[in-house]
Amino acid sequence: MTEARLRTFVALADTGSVRAAALRLYVTESAVSAAVSALTRDLGVPLVRRVGRGVRLTPAGTVYAGYARQVLGLLEEGRAAARGAADPGRGPLRLAAVTTAADQILPELLASFRTRWPDVELTLEVGHRRQVWSSLAAHEADLVLAGRPPADAAATVLATRPNELVVVGSPDVADGFSAARTPWVMREPGSGTRASADAYLAEREVAPPRLVLGSNGAVIAGAAAGLGVALVSRDAVGAELAAGRLVVIEMPGMPLDRPWHAVGGAAPTPTTLLFVRHLLDAPGWTAPKQTASEAPARAGSTGAPTGGRG
């Protein structure tokens, strides 16, 4: 039950076809089939079944794929921890962020971090809320930047930053705004901001028309074009508010307080803690109260230097 076989099986589970898995892994289709057959023999239960030209996981395969992802993630995490322990400034760092954080919070942070630590091997995954928390749970990400972590997440909050959600619209839409009749421009299901908007409207027992757009940028552009109002992070619409293309619409219970959280696993790698220290040097980011006394000590315990690589 080798790492290569596990990676092959996860690729097959993700893509749903032997051909697509082979293309992803740069191997032959026969190599994919052989790896999955070997896993099936080892486990003694069927993992996939044919469906047309593709394959579908059996119930056993679905369960096993979840464990396989965690095993592979732990292996990557272990490699990152070992390399980071030897030299945090040259270790790998796997970030995952929700779309708004990736668009509005991370660019300047990443640019300044790369200037300070150019030898860190940095990767970034951008997705909706469920996706990034699943990546952390599967050990596929070292640090997540998103809203509050799920209650059942095995996670450590390492830093927080204020974040306000406000209702915005074009000046014309704001003039004729009606909570029950004005359309709301929303993100797709799975977005944390979408969940906050749905909960807010349900709490006030109003059901306005909804227009679903596929990205945070599209929602903001749609609101500015007069398609309706939108619940967005104030961080995301600073330029539009300053230019007058959008205005904040005052509503009961607004703004919503939804702080950003930088969250790692139970044992953050030394390179992860290096990035957290960089976060805490940036405006607005603070260590959470429950770990304020221990976070600097944990970061310091890695032996990471405090300055950049001249």
TrEMBL record:
Gene3D superfamilies: Periplasmic binding protein-like II (3.40.190.10), Winged helix-like DNA-binding domain superfamily/Winged helix DNA-binding domain (1.10.10.10). SUPFAM superfamilies: Periplasmic binding protein-like II (SSF53850), Winged helix' DNA-binding domain (SSF46785). It comes from the Bacteria. Residues 1-58 form the HTH lysR-type domain. Belongs to the LysR transcriptional regulatory family. Pfam families: HTH_1, LysR_substrate. This is LysR family transcriptional regulator. One of its GO terms (molecular function) is DNA-binding transcription factor activity. Keywords: DNA-binding, Transcription, Transcription regulation. The keyword Electron transport does not apply. InterPro entries: LysR_HTH_N (IPR000847), LysR_subst-bd (IPR005119), WH-like_DNA-bd_sf (IPR036388), WH_DNA-bd_sf (IPR036390). Transmembrane segments: none annotated. Residues 286-310 are annotated as: Disordered. The keyword Ion transport does not apply.
